[in-house]
Write a structure and sequence with these properties.
The chain is α/β, with parallel strands linked by helices. It has 17 helices and eleven strands. A five-stranded parallel sheet has the order 2-1-7-8-9. A four-stranded parallel sheet has the order 4-3-5-6, with helices on both faces. Strands 10-11 form a two-stranded antiparallel sheet. Helix 1 packs parallel to helix 12 and helix 8 crosses helix 13.
Length: 373
């Protein structure tokens, strides 16, 4: 017999522990579902839900976005990217285009797409033009990019890859002195591709309760109930609360495509730094489609604040679960969805954008500063 969200909410209240428990939900999609369903106001007060590093737009290196902008402006190409990436700001003087959207307004041929198949179509429709696919994303969106190349992409299609793996960021937090959370709700979409077993290290190596969740309120509450019960019983395991979609080994064909086309190495996360074994690069066999090989580098290390967040922006601390979105000093002041200053306010999976859209308009930075001081 299946249980409703109301059933799981009542179960969560019954199993509740006395102390404050911080549960990190890694996925931006989870954060959006939590906000839309109003789960924070429904669950017991001593359970805190902490947004985690599950927004690829938020952690995409500033240097990669800058490179995409410069290729679009200086090369005779069509540049395509997932829609959210077009509004991510970089650190350049105000007189220069600071996003792909502004570069498009300046005359560059930049087009938003929703899937790799659209990049293929645009390349096929423009055989005399070179098409650059700025592919930023986690495993869920990187696997289709790998499949596109494995199946044979048009010769005029090149990939500027900025793919990242999710679990290494969580591992980095758990290996730090202050992880900032007591339990983990693991991402359902990533686990669909990579498998639930990828998250077993959280429980077995670090003694932190973990549960894979889907995106409906019932499965999210089921996962919360699972990790709270694990804490209460001092029995840390990994539980799959999304078994209808997530299998232990994930999607074997998607994983095969990733292994065939890409290799894993250390990678930079915006505002966070280098995380070991957290990034995808194209294998040498696919060098003919590598935009970084086809075009000269536009890296400019002399730029002011290269690779950093904008001045005053606390997006990196939001991504790492150190503060809540409305505790950033710029939240709702200099940074809104209409005029985002930091990447977390750009994407539909960015915690700041989600909180603003859910009606959290009060900036609490002043109160946080006073409490810290």
């Amino acid at each position: 017999m299946s249980h409703s969200a109301r059933d799981w909410l009542e179960a969560l209240k019954r199993v509740n522990v006395e102390r404050t428990v911080r549960i990190m939900n890694v996925c931006g999609g989870h954060e959006r579902s939590i906000a839309v369903a109003g789960l924070r106001s429904a669950i017991p007060e001593n359970i805190e839900l902490v947004p985690g590093p599950g927004c690829p737009v938020c952690i995409c290196p500033e240097e990669d976005v800058f490179e995409a902008i410069q290729i679009a402006l200086n090369e005779d190409v069509i540049l395509v990217a997932f829609g959210d990436m077009l509004r991510v700001p970089v650190n350049v003087p105000k007189r220069e285009p600071r996003s792909l959207e502004q570069a498009k307004a300046a005359g560059a041929d930049i087009r938003p797409i929703a899937s790799p198949s659209e990049a293929v179509r645009i390349a096929e429709e423009n055989p005399d033009r070179e098409v650059v696919f700025f592919a930023a994303g986690f495993e869920t969106t990187t696997a289709p990019v790998a499949a596109m190349l494995a199946q044979g992409a048009p010769e005029n299609l090149f990939v500027l890859l900025s793919g990242r793996l999710t679990w290494p960021a969580v591992a980095m937090l758990l290996e730090s002195e202050a992880p900032g959370f007591d339990a983990l709700v693991a991402p359902g979409h990533v686990a669909t591709v990579m498998g639930s077993e990828e998250w077993r290290f959280v429980a077995e190596k670090h003694g932190i309760p973990a549960a894979v969740a889907g995106f409906r309120p019932d499965t999210l509450l089921m996962a919360m109930c699972s990790v709270i019960r694990q804490l209460r019983d001092d029995d840390c395991i990994l539980e799959n609360c999304y078994p209808e979609v997530v299998k232990p080994d994930g999607n074997p064909e998607a994983r095969r495509c990733l292994d065939t086309v890409m290799q894993v190495g250390d990678a930079n996360w915006r505002g966070v730094g280098i995380i070991p074994d957290s990034g995808y690069t194209l294998r040498p066999e696919f060098a003919a489609h590598d935009a970084r090989i086809r075009f000269d580098s536009y890296a400019d290390d002399s730029r002011k604040r290269v690779g950093e967040m904008p001045p005053g922006c606390d997006c990196a601390r939001v991504v790492l679960g150190r503060i809540y979105p409305n505790e950033c000093r710029l939240y709702g002041v200099a940074c809104t969805p209409q005029k985002p200053d930091g990447p977390c306010m750009v994407s539909d999976e960015g915690a700041c954008r989600i909180w603003w859209s859910a009606g959290h308009r009060e900036n609490r930075w002043e109160g946080r500063r006073q409490s810290v001081g």
